[in-house]
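Exercise 7b. Backbone tokens:
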């Protein structure tokens, strides 16, 4: 198994072992691509949502939040285009009976070409040592140039067939590239056909098509249909935004890679309403603002990149993904889209209700344009864990203490902020004193009291869930009211008066640290 594959496997088992994420309905062998968040998972997820909400709503006078219902009038999804066009190209393998997304099979082929290029570069780097000129090598090496040309040909062909909805050409491409079922190697494929990703259900008191409801596949439409309600009740002037966090549902054809692609997931979306003609200015603004948000938690810039969409949807005039380097490669973490007036315009046509804004500065009414930022909360969770989970050796330690697994999460996002540990539990005074400290601290942030097992083991347990501070109550505490405080990343311990614990912890876990700048 590759190093990255190994890291991913460890991450998934860490999530289960330490109560971050469980497979849904596990006792019935699980439900595919549906997951439950455990005690530490829910804390971390809530902190991610809190960070997003504060950065978007609290920090912007002209952004307000809503919480709209999951069920919406079925015409919503007709107007938004989801009934007719929210499809993925599906292909079945006749031998293995496995189902795939045709575009993802081709993308997998492209990933392999990229891997081949990187392998050639690495080989040459080793061969030439310090004199290696990477740029020149990439431009001139015969094999690299050949792989790059092939990559570009496949990329263009995929973009065209997807853009034009040409399923026959997509199938031809799979055949020409001799793409095989990744699990079995069989090339016995069906034709490619479209598959709508919306889940539907039925209203109890209305039979047939009339009563058909959809589980929302994005939260954004709840914002669009409430645009005028919010504008009128908050007296916002354009440009202004509406933010929302909530569940979304998609019947994904292939849902692998843990919580990366789920059938039930959570989105954090913001629609920014603006004057027609100003959309590209605001698009650039939000690209920069969102990248800053990602970098503020300590994600290295090398792990993030923008990727322009090869194919613009018919209603968009600009679209980019923020990609993160997951253990399985660079993949979409967030989307930023300039959606023109498509959504409001469509709702206006289908509902017959005006979706216009009167602009007092221009003295005219118009349907606003929209720039959207949309990020999956679960994907953000996965990105953070894959960056934070570290296995490291501990200097000067032996035996089972010689290495540790630590979650180096930003302290403001860590599930538990401080653990209070009596050094031993068989002397009654120590647990009693530690409880006294714990009861005081829990008023300010989430704390944990733990007296079980040797102190080293308890430190390791807290490292594994990312707790920034451990406070140990020992015999000296009983004499002079001081404790030791241990910092997670450096493992350095300091002796401080009990009265200073709250101030030290609060200083590091304060969300303000992420919002300034
Ligand atoms: N309103 C725009 C929209 O929904 P999207 O690119 O389809 O755009 C936005 O989704 C974000 O939602 C993605 O960048 C991703 O983070 C997250 N997302 C989409 N599908 C997902 C899935 N099946 N599982 C987990 N997250 C998903």
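Sequence design result:
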């Amino acid at each position: 198994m590759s190093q990255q594959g190994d890291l991913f496997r460890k991450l998934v088992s860490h999530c289960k072992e330490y109560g971050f994420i469980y497979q849904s309905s596990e006792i019935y062998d699980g439900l595919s691509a549906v997951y439950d968040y455990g005690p530490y998972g829910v804390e971390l997820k809530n902190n991610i949502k809190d960070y997003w909400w504060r950065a978007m709503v609290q920090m912007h006078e002209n952004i307000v939040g809503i919480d709209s219902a999951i069920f919406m009038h079925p015409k919503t999804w007709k107007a938004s285009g989801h009934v007719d066009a929210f499809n993925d190209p599906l292909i079945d393998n006749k031998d293995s009976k496995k189902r795939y997304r045709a575009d993802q099979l081709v993308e997998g082929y492209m990933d392999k070409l990229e891997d081949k290029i990187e392998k050639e570069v690495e080989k040459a780097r080793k061969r030439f040592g310090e004199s290696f000129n990477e740029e020149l090598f990439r431009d001139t090496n015969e094999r690299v140039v050949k792989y790059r040309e092939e990559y570009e040909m496949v990329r263009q062909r995929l973009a065209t067939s997807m853009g034009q909805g040409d399923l026959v050409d997509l199938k031809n491409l799979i055949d020409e590239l001799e793409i095989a079922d990744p699990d079995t190697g069989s090339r016995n494929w069906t034709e490619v056909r479209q598959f709508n990703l919306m889940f539907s259900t039925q209203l109890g008191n209305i039979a047939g098509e009339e009563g058909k409801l959809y589980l929302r596949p994005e939260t954004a439409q709840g914002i669009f249909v409430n645009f005028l309600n919010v504008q009128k009740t908050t007296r916002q002037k354009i440009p202004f935004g509406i933010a929302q966090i909530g569940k979304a549902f998609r019947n994904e054809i292939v849902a692998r890679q843990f919580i990366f692609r789920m059938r039930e997931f959570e989105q954090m979306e913001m629609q920014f309403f603006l004057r027609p003609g100003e959309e590209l200015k605001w698009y650039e603004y939000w690209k920069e603002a969102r990248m800053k948000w990602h970098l503020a938690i300590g994600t290295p810039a090398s792990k993030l990149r923008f990727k322009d969409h090869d194919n613009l949807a018919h209603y968009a005039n600009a679209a980019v993904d923020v990609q993160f380097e997951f253990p399985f490669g660079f993949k979409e973490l967030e989307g930023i889209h300039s959606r023109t007036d498509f959504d409001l315009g469509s709702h206006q046509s289908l509902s017959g209700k005006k979706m216009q804004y009167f602009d007092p500065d221009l003295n005219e009414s118009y349907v606003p344009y929209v720039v959207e930022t949309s990020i999956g909360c679960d994907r953000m969770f996965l990105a953070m864990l894959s960056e934070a989970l570290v296995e490291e050796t501990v200097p000067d330690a032996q035996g089972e203490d010689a290495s540790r697994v630590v979650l180096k999460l930003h302290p403001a996002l860590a599930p538990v902020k401080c653990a209070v540990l009596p050094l031993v539990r068989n002397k009654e005074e120590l647990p009693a004193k530690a409880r006294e400290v714990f009861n005081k601290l829990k008023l300010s942030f989430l704390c944990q009291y733990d007296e079980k097992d040797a102190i080293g083991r308890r430190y390791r347990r807290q490292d594994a869930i990312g707790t920034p501070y451990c406070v140990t109550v020992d015999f000296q505490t009983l004499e002079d009211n001081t404790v030791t405080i241990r910092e997670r990343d450096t493992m350095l311990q300091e002796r401080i008066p009990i009265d200073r614990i709250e101030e030290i912890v609060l200083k590091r876990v304060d969300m303000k640290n992420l919002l300034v700048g």
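Instructor comment: The chain has three domains: 1-73+197-391, 87-195, 394-515. The pocket of glycyl-adenosine-5'-phosphate is lined by residues 218, 220, 250, 252, 261-262, 265, 267, 269, 332-335, 372, 374-376, 378-379 (CB under 6 Å).
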